[in-house]
Design brief:
A alpha/beta, B mainly alpha, C mainly alpha, B: mainly alpha, globular, C: two-stranded antiparallel ribbon
Chain lengths: ~250, ~375, ~350
Amino acid sequence: MASILTVQNVNKRFGGLKALDNVNLEIEAGTVHAIIGPNGAGKSTLLNCFIGRLEPDTGTVIFDGVSLLGIKPHEINQVGVSRVFQTPEVFGNLTLRDNVMIPAFAKRDGSFRINAWKGVKRETDIEAKAMAMLENVGLARKADEIAGQLSRGDKRRLELAMCLVQEPKLLLLDEPTAGMARAETNTTIDLLKKIAETGITMVVIEHDMHVVFSLADRISVLAQGTVIAEDLPERIKGNPKVQEAYLGGAHL
Amino acid sequence: MPTRNDMLLLTGFVAVVLAAPFLFEPIGAGYPDLLQKFAIFGIFAIGFNILFGLTGYLSFGHAAFLGVGSYTAVWTFKLLSMNPLPAIVLATLFGGLFAALIGFISLRRTGIYFSILTLAFAQMSYNLAYSVLTPITNGETGLQLSQGDPRVLDIAFGRDYGAVLPSSDLFGLEMTGYPGFYFCGAMLIVCFYIALRIFRSPFGMMLRAVKSNQNRMNYTGLNTRPYALTAFIISGMYAGLAGGLLAVTDPLAGAERMQWTASGEVVLMTILGGSGTLLGPVIGAAVIKYFENIFSAFNKSMLGDIFSFLPESLQSGAVSVASLFVGEGWHLTLGAMFVLIVIFLPGGLMEGIRRIGALARRKKPGGGASASTPAE
Amino acid sequence: MDAIFLQILNGLDKGGAYALIALGLTIIFGTLGVVNFAHGALFMLGAFCAVSIKALFSMNKVALDPTQMTAWGTPMEIRTPYIIDWFGDFGATLLDYSVPVSILIAIPVMLLLGVIMERGLIRHFYKRPHADQILVTFGLAIVLQELVKSQFGANPIPQPAPEAAQGMIDFGLAIGFDAGNVVYPAWRLIYFLFSLAIIGIVFAFLQFTTFGMVVRAGMADRETVGLLGIDIDRRFTIVFGMAAVVAGLAGAMYTPILSPDYHMGMDFLVLSFVVVVVGGMGSLGGAVAAGFLLGILQSFASMNEVKNIFPGIDQIIIYLIAVVILLVRPRGLMGRKGVMEG
């Protein structure tokens, strides 16, 4: 299998603290790769290095032959990386339909284009695409509601629809079920599984082991800024180093 | 092609503009000088709304672009021709250029910073117009036509105005009175139509996204700054055109047009009518110019007549309180309106109309509740 | 050398006024989260406190003196200010010192105005978007300045400094330059020292009192302080009142330097905003440093030697510097990340 995202020798220091210590990762295309680890292990720092929020001190991050370092967030998206935030980020005072049409336009027209003459209503292809995606995540009947009024779970699903309508090559998920009740978590897991079946590569950062083991094809364990283990889920469970990192492995 | 509802809206708008002299007659606003102001400031406010209403960037410096438009137009009259067409084309162009310059710097910051920067740049332009740029702006006196103006195009086409100071004319049709109004009205219709297209387009959708969530927009692969800058330039062009039209109907330009109070006025017009709505800014502009006209005309003796039904002692009190707000005190009324609108009706008049409409529908059960179209 | 020194001195008083206004703006934004476009109006109101006191002190008692006759054969009217009539020499001194005396009155008046503004209006806008806060304070600024205009007229009203401070100080002599080269109006020097004193008081207050500590904590992290169960509401009122007093005092004392008129507030506000932007939004030290820096630069720019090379530079120097700072250091000289962004 070809790897779609290659992270090599990434180091990041904040003052005296070594947040990332020589991190190496290979994400294979078409897999769901979970990154887990105790609090403060550097998971979010690592993710932020993928998306242009942080610049690593050394190392390379290559996505599909393109370096993701030193380019802006919108450029990273345009090469095919979409991102779901811990707290869902949607266009709060626009309708769900508009929320999904905007990324669809971004995919078709690029990061900036003045198409001010043709009405949105005439863009039937884009609208059909958006509606189909809302249907997929089960929000089609709410298409004309204002996004800001949705529940957290619905906002998360809307955000997923917004990412998926762009047909990204890589989807980054930062704790996709954070702050959700059990029932909502389960529907979100089912949705993510369905998305995974379409063959999109996903990188998931997650605390909740239930979520991780339901989804992941492969797991990397991060502790104190280094990758201490990388393996198949069933083998990670038995790994003594991992259990030690988690203080006796009570969580596993 | 716009949708059917938009066609109706546009047709209605055109009809109101064309019939304005008759429609506004009953409220005493059916004369051309005031109607010209309605149209010109309507254009100014529509443009401002494309920036503020859609992207949420609150500029306090738009009067600077209005001023640039006026100066450009007067210079065009002086150097090229008294025909209004080159004047307004150049005024629009220069308004846009100036907006590109100021927008490029101001848009490096968002939110409050942006408002402060635009205010500062407008104030700088105003100071400059009064001092160093006097050769271009003629300082305190204001820029005026003179008999010695070259007007090369007019001369080339054999038009000679002789010894009198000419007024602007469109191939012989003088731009004063009703022809002046209909010229401005035609521009208003064009501007409204362009705004309508922008509002309904994917570009307009992107501008709303800028207002809604810039972070999400960036991670959606969209570059926010050029969108905001384009909106800023478009609104600067609208302001330039409005300034040009002011000079067309009355060929002089003064620095006071660029003062911060003038910038504040267009903000008030927009929020009074309803920012983010299509019709709101035009309505806001007309309402403010109408009341300015009425309030400024009042004086103490007229107030005395109005309150003459009161006993003597109360009458003088009422007159002195009311006189604060009229005549010279019109700006006080403007400021008070500002505060009241922001507190009680942040959505503006359009929001008020919508609320009343919703209330009326609830009172009449089944009465057209299904035909709810957003008030725009 | 002495010319340069003189220009630095010339910039200090204006810089002091900028610094005091910018300080208030920064404190209000940092703690209350509100951008106060009416802050310039508070400066202007302070100036008109001085105008009112002077007018009050100069109210005349009119007596007819039958021993003297006018040219028309009527008894001469003798006008004496009541204050001199009642208090004699002490009254005359009060009249002479009306500007400094007015700051005693300005403190309670400005405090009251600030409290009324915060309780009556600003308070209801803490949770509203910044655009609404800007709009409502902007409207308030117009209302205040128009009220002053209707009361005091549109023309500047000159206010004399006390006679003892009207002279010039030959500053050059004191530090070894030739006599007559660095001559500086005494009142400007007083204003500079006054502004330093106020800045010192404000900083000491923030540094050494518990109240000040809470304010500083609030500026660093507003949400957390809200969670500590501290009675934020009352403190907000006091903070706003304090900032109003600082602006008012700055305005009252400035009257002998610049004759106050109703639109002085907006002029100073715009410049103070630029000061805040240059100093770095949210940084008290930045506001003060940038205030003096810009005041001095402006005074250099108005030197004839400079103006001959760059005509009009004095009108735009402050804005040019703001542009350069924004392009080079978008957060300002001392700005911190995350403060006032978005």
